[in-house]
Amino acid sequence: MMTAEQYLTSLRRINYRAFMFGERVENIVDHPMIRPSINAVAQSYELAGAPSCKGLLTARSGLSGKTVNRFTHLHQGADDLISKVKMQRLLGQKTAACFQRCVGMDAFNAVDSVTYEMERDLNIGYHRRFRSFLLHVQDNDLVVEGAMTDPKGDRSLRPSNQADPDLYLRVVRREKEGILVRGAKAHQTGALSAHEILVMPTMAMGEEDADYAVCFAVPSGTDGITYIYGRQSCDTRRLEGTEIDVGNCHYGGHECLVIFDDLFIPWERVFMCGEYSYTGDLVERFAGYHRQSYGGCKVGVGDVLIGAAALAAEYNGTAGASHIRDKLIEMVHLNETLYACGIACSSQGEATASGTYLIDMLLANVCKQNVTRFPYEIARLAEDIAGGLMVTLPSEKDYRHPEIGKYIEKYLKGTAAAPTEQRMRVMRLIENIALGTAAVGYRTESMHGAGSPQAQRIMIGRQADLDHKKNLARVIAGIES
Ligand code: SF4
Ligand code: FE
Fold first, then answer.
1. Which domains does the chain have, with CATH numbers?
2. Over the Cα atoms of the chain, what is R_g?
3. 102 C-alpha vs ligand 1 centroid, how far in Å?
4. Does any ligand 1 atom lie closer than 6 A to the CB of residue 102?
5. From 7, 45, 227, 294, the catalytic residue
6. Are the beta carbons of 213 and 278 closer than 8 angstroms?
7. For the whole model, what pTM was predicted?
8. Is the shortest distance between the CB of 356 and ligand 1 below 6 Å?
9. What count of Cα atoms within 13 Å lies in the side-chain half-sphere of residue 133?
C-alpha cells in the first residue's frame, strides 16, 4: 500500500488537463484551492498505516489474499459493510470534509456483481476484465473516481431524444481494438485527486438508448479528458493565505465537470457496451452503496459540527443554559439516527451471485432519505447556538492588524477564560460546514448526492411490499382475503 507521501508523488505524475477561473492549472497538487481535497484523500492513506486504525482502513482482498486499503476492497460479508461505514465516520471526523475516495469503492462493488451476472448470462468476459482492472487498483493502491452523473439536458427527454445526443455519455464508434466515447460527467467528486476514472451509465436505459449503456475505466490523465473545476461558496478564501478565515485549516473536497472528447477505450477496459438491460441494476446498486456511505461520512462531519457548536456555547458563556444543552442533545439524536441507518443497512446485507456483499436496499434508501433532512436541521441548530458572529466576523487580517487588531481582541471576546482567537476559529469552522466550502458536502450533497430525495422515495415505494403489510392488517382485523 502507498503512504500519504507516495500518494502525493503519484498525483504529480498525472498530466490532468484542468481549468479553473479560465486558466489551465499546471500544478494541481500545490494549488491552494485544490490541495485541501488532496489532503483529505491523503488521510485514507495516512490512517491505513496508523496502528490504531489499520483494522478499519485495511482488509484482506478476496481477489489476491493480500492486505489492501478498504477503499479498494470488495465487501466479503456484512462485517465488511459495517467496517466501511465506521471507516467513513472516522474519516469524516478527521477531515470534516468529503474525502472523495468512497465513490470509487462503491462503484467497484456495484460493477463487480453486475458484470458477474452479465458474464454468466451473456458469456462476454466483462467480469474477468473488471476483476483484472480491480487487481491493478488494489495492488497499486489507487484512487478511482466513480463517474455516474450525466449532464442530462432536458429531463423530460430520453438520452437519444435530446437535441444534443452528447448530453448523456455514449459510444460513438465501435472498433476492432476498442470503443470511442463522447460526453461528460457532472459533479465529479475528487476528479483531480484520482488516478483512474470508472465510468458507469447514469440511469436505466432502454433498447433505443443502447449506445448509452456503457461502463469502462480510463487513467485520469488520458488525452481527450478535460476537467473544469467547480466553484464552492467562499472558495477564494483559500487564496488569501490566512488560516482562521477558511474555518477548516487543512481539508476540503472538490467537484469537476469532466469532459470525454472522443476518447478511445481498449476492449480490455470496457465492462459494458450496449447491454442496456443491466443498466438498472448497476445504477441501483451503486446508488444503494453510496446511500449507505452517507450514513458514515455525514455522521463524522456531524460529529465535528456538534463539537464546534458545543465549543461555541462554551466560549459564548451559554453552555449551562438548558435550551442549549437540549439543542446539542437533539443534534446528537439526529446524527446517531443517520448512523443507525448506515449500520442497519450494512448488517442486513447479503451476498450477490459474485460473492460480493450488497447492503439491504430498503434500509439504505431510508438512510439517504434521512440524510436529505437531518444535516440541515443539525446545521440550523449549530447556527442557532453559535450566534450571528459566525457570519459577521472581521477577517484574520484585521485581527492581526497592528492598529485595529486590539479592538477585535477586546470586543469580540466571550468568556474571560476563552481567548478571542479560539472563538473566531470555531465560528469560522461552523460557517465553513454550514455555509462555506464544506457545505457542498454537508448540505447540498446531502440533498442531491447519491440521488435526489425523490429517487429514494421511488426505491422505498418499490421495496415497501404493501401487499404483505395489507395481509398483516387483514389477519389482525379478521378480514377474509
Ligand atoms: Fe465519501 Fe461522503 Fe464524499 Fe461520498 S460524500 S465520497 S461518501 S465522503
Ligand atoms: Fe457523494
1. 4-273 (2.40.110.10), 281-471 (1.20.140.10)
2. 23
3. 6
4. yes
5. 294
6. yes
7. 0.97
8. no
9. 30
